[in-house]
Amino acid sequence: xxxxxxxxxxxxxxxxxxxxxxxxxxxxxxxxxxxxxxxxxxxxxxxxxxxxxxxxxxxxxxxxxxxxxxxxxxxxxxxxxxxxxxxxxxxxxxxxxxxxxxxxxxxxxxxxxxxxxxxxxxxxxxxxxxxxxxxxxxxxxxxxxxxxxxxxxxxxxxxxxxxxxxxxxxxxxxxxxxxxxxxxxxxxxxxxxxxxxxxxxxxxxxxxxxxxxxxxxxxxxxxxxxxxxxxxxxxxxxxxxxxxxxxxxxxxxxxxxxxxxxxxxxxxxxxxxxxxxxxxxxxxxxxxxxxxxxxxxxxxxxxxxxxxxxxxxxxxxxxxxxxxxxxxxxxxxxxxxxxxxxxxxxxxxxxxxxxxxxxxxxxxxxxxxxxxxxxxxxxxxxxxxxxx
Length: 388
Fold this sequence. Notes:
This protein is mostly helical. Among the domains are: 3-141, Glutaredoxin (3-Layer(aba) Sandwich), CATH 3.40.30; 167-214 and 228-240, no CATH class. 59% of the residues lie in helices and 6% in strands. It has helices spanning 10-13, 32-42, 56-65, 69-78, 90-99, 126-141, 159-162, 174-182, 190-198, 204-212, 214-237, 248-262, 268-283, 287-296, 302-318, 320-333, 340-350, 355-371, 375-387, and strands at 46-51, 80-85, 106-110, 116-121. A 4-stranded mixed β-sheet has the order 2-1-3-4, sandwiched between helices. The chain is globular, with a radius of gyration of 23 Å.
């Protein structure tokens, strides 16, 4: 979250744009018309941070990532940078409406012509965030856009959609969405896709069409909206996995049945790992079986690794066999791109059982902390390395 709703940014943008060159941050505050005009003049895309006051991840980006020397320099050189509070600023509501935003912070990069270049979601350490910015620059220079969205920001649509972004935040009933979807001829139209992302379970014809054309949907609308649709599709399919006791044979049969439908998306390994997390870990609460499955299938998703420890840390601490499985999985999934938080926690779990691995994780953590100017943490981490 930018500082105090960006009050520090020269009285919330009432001064001319030229004044912002003297400010101490890369973010400016101005009307959307002014921002587009400046973007056209400088031939740079607009980086938009959507946030709200009280958002922890937003604050972490403000304090740890945006001020970093490399990140700030890259943003200043390649983007027109701004931000909107999605609860306090009307244009923040408009952005939510146009791009169906629901998690924050979300970063929207929009071309001078109003095309959506890229979308980023949530907190990221400085190195990963800088990689995202560089990927975005490449997309912009190569003329790649998420072309499913309209090239203007305006709150519009039927009553069920408008209700999402009024002060009551009213989620439309499935019956309303089903009626709407039944009338649509184009399953890839913007408002149709938004309804697909909101309904609890997709109608059968929409489900099959989406899975067959998932790559196209990704190209048109990007990751955030598609993750919402995938959650609906996977949730509907998971109804076949009944009961609270893990059944390995039933789960493998389930994966075999659905592999052909999901595989055209090109991410079957990630999809089946998500099914495993939902079924083995969350539904049947079988931590041991989940760790065994993740190791056997070489799950590289460090978010799953982090969640397993977040919810299962007490069991892992008490049971050496679980700890050994968790650390075996960590050696598969953890690398220099892993988050600073997870590097620290996994190094802690290892303790002194594997000093070489712990030292490597801490060195990676030091590099990340240095990039974010976290001098206290750098000192502490170097102290731990020296003690090994």
